Amino acid sequence: MSATPDQASLVDQDRRPPSTIPVTINNKTVQLPEREMTGLEIKQAAAAQGLPIDPGFQLSVKRGNRYDIVGDTDTVHIHRNLDFLAVAPDDNS
Q: Under a CB-based contact definition with an 8 Å cutoff, are residues 53 and 46 in contact?
């Protein structure tokens, strides 16, 4: 019994590694999936790849000459050349 074209394409998709895009977070390269991600998902992915950050950090993305804050529920379309900054919260609260 042979696989139908639809079944064959599903098998091929399972064998292909997910497509990732290199971005910069705190001057370190991190691989993120090519899709939209929330600020929290970006921080979690960076931490999983060894960056010393946690979900409590404030995330910002560079847009032109400034950094715009990315909230935990804000979505960012992941693409090449993104530059993020993740900063620990002040302990003076």
A: yes
Please state the pTM of the whole predicted model.
0.78
Q: Could you read off the pLDDT of 75-84 as tens digits, one per residue?
A: 999 998 899 9
| Residue 7 pLDDT exceeds 60 | no
Q: What stretches of 45-93 adopt beta strand conformation (E)?
A: 58-63, 66-70, 75-77, 83-87
- Both tokens assigned to 10: 């599903």
Question: Which residues 6+ apart lie within 8 Å of 49 measured at CB?
Answer: 30, 31
DSSP SS3 for 46? helix
In the numeric block, the tokens 């693409």 are attached to 79
